[in-house]
Amino acid sequence: MNKSTKNLFFISALLIISALITGTVSGSGSDDVLSYARGDTVTVSGFAAGNPSLGVAVWLFGNNLWDRDVISVDSSGGYSYELSPSETSGLSAGQYYVIVQHPGYNGRFDADKASGVQGQTVVSSEAGSSFIIGGTGSLQGRQAAKALMDMLDSNNIDDMYSYTSFILEEPLIEENLGGKIYDRGIISLSGSTNLAAGEKLFYSVQPLEFGPTSKEYSVPQGGTSGNIYVTGSSPLNLWNAEIDASDYSPGEYIFEIGRPDGSYKSTMVFTVTETTDASEADKENTGTSVQVPAETSVAEKTPDGVPMAQNTPESPLSVLLPIFAAALSVISLAYGKKFL
User: Fold this and answer.
1) Which of these, 60, 235, 214, lies nearest to 133 by C-alpha position?
2) 92 with 138, same domain?
3) Is 294 inside any structural domain?
4) Partner residues linked to 239 by β-bridges
5) What gap in Å lies between CA 66 and CA 138, rounded to an integer?
6) Residue 258 maps to which CATH number?
7) Contact at 8 Å (CB) between 270 and 189?
């Protein structure tokens, strides 16, 4: 089997690497570089066929940084390399390059680190090539990664490798509070972040004017705290906190959100206003109207203030009574004459 055939075999089957990072993916294409915030966990895992007894060597290169760790491979050929939150917090922002080296058929690393002159650290191969990674004249970042890959590509050694890279960014938590003025009730505060999807965040709310005050000075009352989790999205992940401000006094409140360990947090201010009770307003604007009859004057007054006689409509009886009285008088007169 010639070298080119062995290369094809190893690249396709012996060493398969996939980056499993619970962070923001800057794009969906296969050539995109994965991005993380400092303080996130970075995990590189994969499969090394042949179950090499030495394991695999993981090289990490960055600006003024290099590291090499040998990690074991489990019975199924799987391996996992992790940079903890404390480790990535100590790294500067920038792009980092990861090379996973398989020892190949002979079961040994044909390219390895070694001590050089004047305190230098070098990478040398059994083929006789070398380059400096530490001390005076050392290669940095991408240049060091390329030099190692060129060394491993030599036909004189059988080590195989796989390569990936990622970007570390400064932590970012942005808010999307709109007008930042809310009525009392359930308030939804949200925003975006480059922190990893699934990462727990701690938030707190308290009155902006919290502190010693005089008895005559009233300060807003209310506040809460809790935990939420970042949800995945693109290009940035998202966060959302639901705050029950039903019992909050009107005023300004400070909202803080960040990592529970306090390594990074963001602060913003919003205002709570009094809620208008529609039912009470309806009660004030709606009532039972009582019709008050217009006052009827009993008698009109003359210009001198003397009441004028009021013309009252006559009843039919008032017209007939005088007639009946006259008739009775005639009858009584007639009878009187007759009996005298």
Assistant:
1) 60
2) yes
3) no
4) 191
5) 10
6) 2.60.40.2550
7) yes
- Report how many domains make up the chain: 2
Kindly report whether the global pTM for this prediction surpasses the value 0.70: no
Among residues 140, 169, 198, which one ends one of the domains? 169
Looking at the fold, whether 82 and 194 belong to one and the same domain comes out as no
Average pLDDT, 10 consecutive residues per value, the chain (340 residues): 32 34 28 82 89 92 92 91 92 94 91 87 90 91 94 90 92 83 90 92 86 51 88 90 91 92 88 67 44 42 46 48 43 34
Residue span of the structural domain in which 214 resides? 173-277
110 and 216 in a single domain? The answer is: no
65 plus 142 within the same structural domain: yes
**Torsion of Cα atoms, 38 then 41 then 45 then 51, to 10°:** 110
Rounded-to-integer distance, Cα 155 and Cα 150, Å: 10
Distance CA 23, CA 29 (A): 16
Whether residue 230 is contained in a domain is answered as yes
> Is there a single domain that holds both residue 159 and residue 33?
yes
**How far apart are alpha carbons 300 and 310 in whole angstroms?**
8
Rounded Cα distance between 109 and 135, Å, is 23
Cβ atoms of 201 and 257 within 8 Å: the answer is yes
Q: For residue 138, what pLDDT is reported?
A: 92
Q: What is the DSSP string of 144-200?
A: HHHHHHHHHT-TT---EEEEEEEEEE---EEE--TTSEEESSEEEEEEEESSPTT-E
Among 123, 152, 169, the domain-final residue is 169
Strands of the 173-175 sheet, one edge to the other: 173-175, 186-193, 237-244
Query: CA-CA distances (angstroms) from residue 22 to 28, 152, 313?
Result: 15, 30, 101
Phi/psi at 318 (5° precision): -65, -20
DSSP 67-136: EEEEE---TTSEEEEEE-HHHHHTSPSEEEEEEEEE-TTTTS-SEEEEE-GGG-EEEEETTS-EEEEEST
| Residue 316 forms part of a structural domain | no
Q: What is the pLDDT of residue 336?
A: 37
Q: Could you tell me if residue 268 is inside a domain? A: yes
